[in-house]
Each structure stands twice: as structure tokens, then as C-alpha cells.
């Protein structure tokens, strides 16, 4: 379904308030068709609120949301066949069997469910499981059912709110494979998560929100590159802690003859030039991990600038 902007999602100045509580404020995010896009932020940041606006379950207080070129609230029915949604808290009818649940949700999606059987098999929901009532399901089984319904009708856009919650590691691997296939087949995916390696592995670009506001939108690679370098120097003269000249500005952490410094990327080369004039026996330079990058963004109080791409 080609859209005029080429974007599957266009969120412009979105504000959603719940009475006096702010869910999100002045949020702007665009996701291109065919992107697998990560949505990150601490608890209460506004991820679920945004996703519920995208699937038409919440009406924006201000601003606009377009999904596959349509308004998800007023064009909900015509959008349903093209949209897959896994809510963070899946509410199912406990008295229905798994099979009846999938059938009901396919009816609401207004589309055939050509992938239902294959997805159940891959996520290890057996025929016997599908004949049991949802009341008897474990948390992981409910989550698998949620994933099957979100993907069973081959939607153009899939919105997944913390999709791996409750899944065991083997099923998580199957989920990652499914996600990679969706990306290769040109589908668009918006995925919220607290699991940073999950995002690093599956998404090229991410948006980070905090307290209802956008902190940054960036590629995973740029977030990493913008982070400090971890420089580890080993001296061999048994002197231990010593002055490091200008590099003392980076507050070295000393362990015997070893100093560890976190240096911003644009200062690393100059700092190394000076440091390597000292009697250094060994040096290693590492990129700070993505998890360190995210923790930093989570913690900092001022909204960060978009790092260079
Ligand atoms: N139905 C509601 N009524 C009132 N306030 C709400 C409601 N839903 C969410 N909020 C508030 O909106 C803010 C954003 O919540 P939201 O659930 O969107 O965050 P989130 O990023 O999905 O968090 P989490 O990672 O914990 O799931 C929070 O302050 C929350 O308390």
C-alpha cells in the first residue's frame, strides 16, 4: 500500500493527555515503509500511549497520526486488514479456545488468515493447545497466540508492544527469525522494547522517548558511534597511579598499573597521541556498548541532540 509520503507511520506534534496526566507531548516520528523500527524508553515514557494512538484505540488530544496514509481513528475499519497489533497487555476471552480466539480476531481484522497454521507451528502452539480454552493458557502461550494473531493476515504494518515478554529463549529465537523475514519481505515493523540487545539486533533505527517526549531518533550505528571510547592503558613499571596530563580530565579509573578512561569520540585520537608518549606497555580502545549508550540517554535530564548519522 504505497503512501503519499513513502512513510508507513507519520506522527506529527502528537499530544495525548489522560485528564491532567500527560501520556505523550509534542511527539514527532516518521517510519518509512519497509523499516524495522525500535521504540525505546523507560517505564511510563509514553510508548504504549503512542502505539495505541497508531492503532486507533486512542484519539490524540492534539496533533496528527497517519498510518499507511490513513487516520487510524476514523478509518479504523479500512485499515484493519493491513495492520497487525500485539498489545503489551493482551486481553483475551478466557472461555474461548485458542483456535476460536484466532478466528474471532481474524474476523475483526476483516481479512483471511493465510499464515495462521504456519505461525502456530513455528511458535509451537500445537493442535491440542489450540483446542484448550485461553483460561488454561500460560503467559507464554498467550503471548504466542498474540503474535500469531498480529501476523496471521500478513499485514503491511506490524505494531508490537514488548513482543518477547514471557517467551522462552527458544521461542524468542523463532520470533527474531520471523521479524527478519518481515523486514526482508518489505513489511514495516514498529517494536517497543526494554531489551536493548533485542533492538540492537533487529532494528536499524530507533526513537527514544522519556517522560512523554522524544529524546532522539537515530540509527543504532550512530548512537553507538556517538558514545565514548573506553581506553585501557597498561603501564609496566610498577608505579601504579600517576599523572596522565590533560587526560586526567577524563577521570581515569585505576586498577594497579592499569587506567581506564571514557573519552568522547572526537577527542580520542588527540588524547591517545599524548598518552602513548608515556611508558605504556599495552593499549586497547573499545566502543561503549549500545546498552551504555541507552542508559546514558535514559539517565540524562536534558533532551539530547540527534547524533550524526
Ligand atoms: N489510561 C490511563 N489513564 C491515566 N494515565 C495513563 C493511562 N495510560 C497511561 N497513562 C500515563 O501516561 C504515561 C505514559 O504511559 P505509557 O503506558 O504510554 O508508557 P510506556 O512507555 O508504555 O511505559 P511501560 O514501559 O511501563 O509500559 C504514564 O505517566 C502513565 O501513567
Automatic annotation (TrEMBL):
The keyword Glycoprotein does not apply. Residues 9-236 form the ABC transporter domain. It comes from the Bacteria. Keywords: ATP-binding, Nucleotide-binding, Transport. CDD domains: ABC_DR_subfamily_A (cd03230). GO terms for molecular function: ATP binding; ATP hydrolysis activity. The keyword ATP-binding applies. Pfam families: ABC_tran. Belongs to the ABC transporter superfamily. This is ABC transporter ATP-binding protein.
Amino acid at each position: 500500500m504505497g503512501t503519499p509520503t513513502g512513510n508507513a507511520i507519520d506522527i506529527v506534534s502528537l499530544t495525548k493527555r489522560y485528564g491532567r496526566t500527560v501520556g505523550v507531548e509534542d511527539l514527532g516520528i516518521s517510519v518509512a515503509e519497509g523499516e524495522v523500527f525500535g521504540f525505546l524508553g523507560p517505564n511510563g515514557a509514553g510508548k504504549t500511549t503512542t502505539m495505541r494512538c497508531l492503532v486507533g484505540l486512542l484519539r490524540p488530544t492534539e496533533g496528527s497520526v497517519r498510518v499507511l496514509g490513513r487516520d487510524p481513528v476514523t478509518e479504523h475499519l479500512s485499515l484493519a486488514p493491513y495492520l497487525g497489533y500485539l498489545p503489551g497487555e493482551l486481553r483475551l476471552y478466557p472461555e474461548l479456545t485458542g483456535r476460536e480466539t484466532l478466528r474471532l480476531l481474524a474476523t475483526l481484522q476483516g481479512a483471511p488468515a493465510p499464515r495462521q497454521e504456519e505461525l502456530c507451528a513455528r511458535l509451537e502452539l500445537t493442535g491440542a493447545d489450540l483446542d484448550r480454552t485461553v483460561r488454561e493458557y500460560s503467559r507464554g502461550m498467550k503471548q504466542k497466540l498474540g503474535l500469531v494473531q498480529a501476523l496471521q493476515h500478513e499485514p503491511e504494518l506490524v505494531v508490537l508492544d514488548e513482543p518477547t515478554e514471557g517467551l522462552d529463549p527458544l521461542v524468542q529465537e523463532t520470533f527474531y527469525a520471523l521479524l527478519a523475514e518481515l523486514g526482508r519481505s518489505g513489511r514495516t515493523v514498529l517494536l517497543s522494547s526494554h531489551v536493548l540487545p533485542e533492538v540492537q539486533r533487529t532494528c536499524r533505527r530507533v526513537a527514544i522517548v522519556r517522560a512523554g517526549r522524544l529524546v532522539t531518533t537515530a540509527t543504532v550505528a550512530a548512537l553507538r558511534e556517538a558514545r565514548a571510547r573506553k581506553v585501557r592503558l597498561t603501564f609496566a613499571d610498577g608505579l601504579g597511579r600517576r599523572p596522565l596530563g590533560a587526560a586526567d580530565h577524563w577521570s581515569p579509573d585505576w586498577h594497579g598499573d592499569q587506567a581506564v578512561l571514557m573519552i568522547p569520540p572526537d577527542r580520542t585520537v588527540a588524547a591517545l597521541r599524548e598518552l602513548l608518549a608515556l611508558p605504556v606497555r599495552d593499549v586497547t580502545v573499545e566502543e561503549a556498548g549500545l546498552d551504555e549508550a541507552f542508559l546514558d540517554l535514559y539517565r540524562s535530564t536534558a533532551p539530547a541532540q540527534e547524533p550524526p548519522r
